[in-house]
Amino acid sequence: MNLIWLEDFMALAATGNFSRAAQDRHSSQPAFSRRIRALEEWIGAELFDRRSQPAQLTEAGEWFTGVAQELIARVARVPGDARKVAEASSVTLRIASTHALSFTFLPRWLRSLESNTTLGPVQLMSDVLQRCEALMLQSKVQFVLSHAHSKAQGALDAEPYRSTRIGEDLLIPVSAPDGEGHARHQLARRGDAAVPMLQYSEESGLGRIMRAVIGRRLESVPAQAVFTAHLASVLRTMVLDGRGIAWLPQTLVDDDMNQGRLVAAADHAWEVPLEVRLYRDSELLGKAANAFWNAASGG
Predict the structure, then answer these.
(1) In this predicted model, what pLDDT tens digit does every residue of 138-148 receive, in sequence order?
(2) CB under 8 Å to 228, separation ≥6 — which residues?
(3) pLDDT of 191 over the 60 cut
(4) HTH lysR-type domain: which residues (predicted)?
(5) DSSP for the chain?
(6) What is the pLDDT confidence band of residue 284, given thresholds at 50, 70 and 90?
């Protein structure tokens, strides 16, 4: 029995049409039909009633649907489960972190942990939040480090994942200063000219938080989106160039604001408080990873 046969079976069960299912599977119809027939011969029963249009599942086919779904799911879990077994004795920590935290927060935080525990080798993958979440869902990393907010729940804010708060941050609306040190671009009030906005893309975790927390309030402000990017660091560069306003993490722009390169573009009511959270799978991590988690969470 071949895994491809199971996937072919599920495609045909969904459509009831050999031609369409073969297209969905990027296969010629004769080759697709041969694989379905081979599966039926292996099982020893017909799975589809070919006399009806569209093709209907037989009683054996109805039963086999659940079996096929379970087998496909079990096979899909094998790589992740194998990695978990292998890493039980591994000393390497595999961490995915959003770009903004990789640049500023993570190095300082790791140094603070090293004063209390011995860390082994760290393999860091830095990306946007959506891709960091995908790495955790695929069991390719043991931990994810990201900004978080209670109003913007993500894929890792539910079972079987756990998290611990390890820091805090603040999203601040900032602008380059004018010649007198005031914000070159200020968050406008209704009736004022539209302010140029530098915004996060849909994939960005900070963008997800902004939309959830102040998205509706921003709709009442005259603004024009002039630039969109995944990364806070890219938006920071554009703000420094005087292109508009962006909400940037305090950890990223602290030095810029202290040196006067950036200034607040709105009052404190427009700031968004953030948590910095470390996420993990609730299952066994291995000795080194568990020691790291205990040090991070104070457990």
Answers:
(1) 888 999 999 99
(2) 198, 199, 200, 201
(3) no
(4) 1-58
(5) --HHHHHHHHHHHHH--HHHHHHHTT--HHHHHHHHHHHHHHHTS--EETTSSS-EE-HHHHHHHHHHHHHHHHHHHHHHHHHHHHHTT---EEEEEEHHHHHTHHHHHHHHHHTTS----EEEEEE-HHHHHHHHHTTS-SEEEEEE-TTS--TTSSTTEEEEEEEEEEEEEEE-B-TTSSBSS-PPPTTSPPEEEEEE-TT-HHHHHHHHHHHHHHHTS-EEEEEEES-HHHHHHHHHTT--BEEEEHHHHHHHHHTTSSEESS-GGG-EEEEEEEEEESS---HHHHHHHHHHHT-
(6) low
Domain 87-168+275-297 fold is D-Maltodextrin-Binding Protein; domain 2 (3.40.190)
What pLDDT, on the 0 to 100 scale, is given for residue 114? Answer: 85
Please determine whether the domains at 3-83 and 87-168+275-297 fall in the same fold group of CATH. Answer: no
Q: With bands split at pLDDT 50, 70 and 90, how would you rate the model's confidence at 289? A: confident
Does the domain at 169-274 match CATH 3.40.190.10? Answer given as: yes
Amino acid sitting at position 241? D
Which CATH number is associated with domain 3-83?
Answer: 1.10.10.10
pLDDT for 84 beyond 60: yes
Rounded Cα distance, 245 and 130, in Å: 24
> What would the two tokens of residue 11 be?
């495609």
Q: Is 119 left (phi over 0), alpha (psi -120 to 50) or beta?
A: beta
Written as one letter, the residue type at 275 is E
- pTM of the predicted model as reported, rounded to 2 decimal places: 0.69
Residues 92 and 120: beta-carbon distance below 8 Å: yes
pLDDT digits (tens, 9 = 90+) for 2-31: 899 999 999 999 999 999 999 999 999 999
